[in-house]
Amino acid sequence: MLTSLTIKNFALIEQLEMNFSDRLSIITGETGAGKSILLGALGLVLGKRADLTSLKDKEQKCVVEAHFQIDKYQLQDFFTANDLDYEDVTIIRREILPSGKSRAFINDSPVNLNELVELGDFLIDIHSQHQTRELTNKEYQTEILDAFAANQSLLTDYRQHLSKYKTLKSDLKKLISDKDALTKEYDYNSFLLNELLTANLKSGELEELESIQEKLSNVEFIGESIDKSLAILNEEQIGVIQNLKEVKIALQKISGLSPDYQTLHERIASILIETDDVASELVSESEKLVNDPEKLDLVNQKLQTLYALFKKHNVGTIEELLEIQNDLDGKVILADDLENTIVKLESEIAGQQKELDALAAEITKKRIASAPVLTDKIAEILSQLGMPNARFQFEISPSASCGHNGKDEIQLLFSANKGTDFGLLKKVASGGEMSRIMLAVKSIMANYTKLPTIIFDEIDTGVSGEIAHKMGDIMKAMSEELQVFAITHLPQIAAKGEQHYKVYKSVIGDTTVSELKLLTKEERITEIAEMLSGKEISDSALNHAKALLN
Question: According to the UniProt entry, where is the signal peptide (predicted)?
Fold first, then answer.
């Protein structure tokens, strides 16, 4: 609820500070006295755009500050989501600087207008004759019916399933798109993969094949070189090994004479061992050396295959070809697996659709059961407000798709007179009728949902007498559940308030200012008497005013 309002340097208001009760507060005043200025100031703290025309003194800043008691509104999530400090008594302040720059604060934290608008929607509902169009909105009509039918829990569950359903549908769409793209490349990728698999690639194989190719291509030359080497090493009289043996024997004879000779002997012995080992290796290589044209042809074919693959894939190693092979294998497998994944996802979507249909059916069932009860209640209130023949009907028809509020198309139809057909509310209801219908709806909803502070701005235009009394009674009854403000010209309604404020103009020096005053009991009698008879207040008007207040 709005507990206090402070306005400085706004339009015709120099400075104003007011505290408000949690019940029905009345605001009256002559036309042009400044009632719309109050609404304009409240509009600023609710996030409406501002400009320099709002400043009374163009050299000073304008400040509008409102205090709200919000402990019953369950708004902690909003404050957490917007990184704001939560306070049971929350202060919203709006400043307009002489430069034209506007600033907004929630509990002294700077905020943007979007955050202000979002919070304002939870706090105040300003309703005038010109704002009854909300009632003609299909979504608002659906919200009214759902609040009366107590569908909130079902709708929360339904919307969670709907969110998951939409996510699954989005995933399916992407998978199908991926599958189409992969299908186009599938044959080519399969061909490339089979080509690489047929090559039977092995890491390090290139170097091995090239070595084998070198040996097989030069088998005669290699054989000749090995044979020549063996002959030099093993010649009986002049071979290297024989000569090394003789050197070893000669050095052995003198090795005991000096450590130097002993070292030379050991070195020759080592050389002899190594040379003898080389000779053995040469014999082994000679025995393995075979002239095999068929194997050479196979090796050449394999190398040509590898070189061709290198060129095709623009790489230079078998390791890189193996990476490409793994990538292609993944794409081919993915294309094969996508179909199975799509089938599973379609099955999951069908399950979600079944859940949604069941929840939507339950929501529809409660709507159908509640609709005639709600329309009867609205008609009953309107009968008290001078519309005895008003009839309503909720037209609930199934929708093929799942919407945010279920699978129903809902329209509120209206007939004002006996013998006339039902028609769309926005087409057949007059402005005055719409105001009374909205009052009836709001008064019912006050018992079924947590409405914010509501301000009725002269919705009683064109109403008088007993109807005005009934409207006042309805507003007063509403104030048992929520804070209500009524800006009115009717004394019957003004007399129903717990507090009564008067907006008036006064001239201070050369300046006209608007002021707001909380009336005393005696001042209320005078104000209501003036509303009844004009500036010339008669005794009968005073008595009538007292009677109204009592």
Answer: none
